[in-house]
Design goal:
With about 60 residues, this protein is mainly alpha-helical. It has one domain (about 5-60). It has three helices and two strands. The N and C termini lie far apart (about 45 Å).
């Protein structure tokens, strides 16, 4: 499978936005990256979330801590 240069750049942008959102605690920007019916499973913990992107990022929101 060969990716086009444009695809690679788009992937880089999504990764940058994802990690920057995590670093900055920008939950809204993080939520916007996910499709509405995202399925998330956090491995290595007790958290398993269903099919809503807002629920998927709720566990990451520390309330500004």
């Amino acid at each position: 499978m060969s990716l086009r240069l444009e695809d690679i750049e788009l992937i880089k942008r999504v990764k940058h936005t994802y990690f920057r959102s995590i670093d900055m605690g920008d939950i809204k920007a993080l939520e916007d990256l996910f499709i509405p019916d995202v399925q998330v499973l956090y491995v290595g913990g007790d958290l398993s979330l269903g099919d809503q992107r807002s629920r998927a990022v709720t566990g990451l929101d520390c309330g500004g801590l």
